[in-house]
UniProtKB/TrEMBL annotation:
<feature type="domain" description="HTH tetR-type">
    <location>
        <begin position="8"/>
        <end position="68"/>
    </location>
</feature>
<dbReference type="InterPro" id="IPR009057">
    <property type="entry name" value="Homeodomain-like_sf"/>
</dbReference>
<dbReference type="InterPro" id="IPR050109">
    <property type="entry name" value="HTH-type_TetR-like_transc_reg"/>
</dbReference>
<dbReference type="GO" id="GO:0003677">
    <property type="term" value="F:DNA binding"/>
</dbReference>
<dbReference type="InterPro" id="IPR036271">
    <property type="entry name" value="Tet_transcr_reg_TetR-rel_C_sf"/>
</dbReference>
<dbReference type="Pfam" id="PF00440">
    <property type="entry name" value="TetR_N"/>
</dbReference>
<keyword id="KW-0238">DNA-binding</keyword>
<dbReference type="InterPro" id="IPR001647">
    <property type="entry name" value="HTH_TetR"/>
</dbReference>
<protein>
    <submittedName>
        <fullName>TetR family transcriptional regulator</fullName>
    </submittedName>
</protein>
<feature type="DNA-binding region" description="H-T-H motif">
    <location>
        <begin position="31"/>
        <end position="50"/>
    </location>
</feature>
């Protein structure tokens, strides 16, 4: 029997269905049957396109990472002033992760299990994020007296933690504060402005 050719339209429908399920249930709560039901296909056809949930998630993650990481790298290495970089970083990061909220937790889990393998899988021969220009820029701004004294590393950590943590802790916020999906998304849209304002106000002279 001739091997059935994979149809691009069906594959994309599966990927979109998987994104929807992963957003609702997370990587570990999702089942292949959930994804098949969301895509309107049977489970056998789903397994024909993707052998496992892990491979399906890996495909989605790589596509999302390909959108996020180059944008972050471009911001950090641009010739923008420091305040503009902080604003752009928050906007670019949150914009991508709102549509792919499983990204931060997945990255953390994978990095903790095998950081060397994970970074090789994500980056391969592509350019890795390099914050050295951004860190040097902070140091120079401090030395020139343009901003309050702060460790470049600490400022970078503040920026990353304030953008990443709400997505990692999303279930806690939703459960304890009674936020639905729309309310959480709206709050994250607001954080595109709130985080830069908070950080810039903390270092502005």
């Amino acid at each position: 029997m001739a091997k059935r050719l994979k149809d691009h339209t069906t594959e994309e429908a599966i990927l979109q269905a998987a994104r929807n399920v992963f957003i609702k249930k997370g990587m570990y709560g999702a089942r292949m049957q959930d994804i098949a039901d969301e895509a309107g296909i049977n489970k056998a056809l789903l397994h024909y396109y993707f052998e496992s949930k892990e491979k399906l998630f890996g495909k989605i993650f790589e596509e999302a990472a390909a959108h996020l990481f180059p944008k972050v790298n471009e911001v950090l290495n641009s010739d923008d002033d420091l305040y503009t970089k902080i604003e752009r970083f928050c906007d670019e990061y949150i914009t991508v992760v709102i549509e792919n909220p499983y990204l931060p937790l997945f990255v953390m889990n994978e990095v903790n299990q095998d950081p060397v393998y994970f970074m090789k899988k994500v980056w391969g021969d592509k350019q890795k994020p390099n914050p050295s220009k951004f860190l040097k820029q902070i140091e120079e701004e401090v030395q020139k007296g343009k901003i309050k004294p702060i460790s470049p590393l600490q400022l970078m950590m503040n920026l990353l933690s304030m953008t990443i943590f709400p997505f990692v802790a999303k279930p806690i916020f939703q459960m304890n504060l009674g936020l639905d999906e729309f309310q959480f998304r709206h709050a994250m849209e607001q954080r595109k402005k709130e985080i830069p304002r908070f950080i810039i106000d903390s270092i502005r002279k």
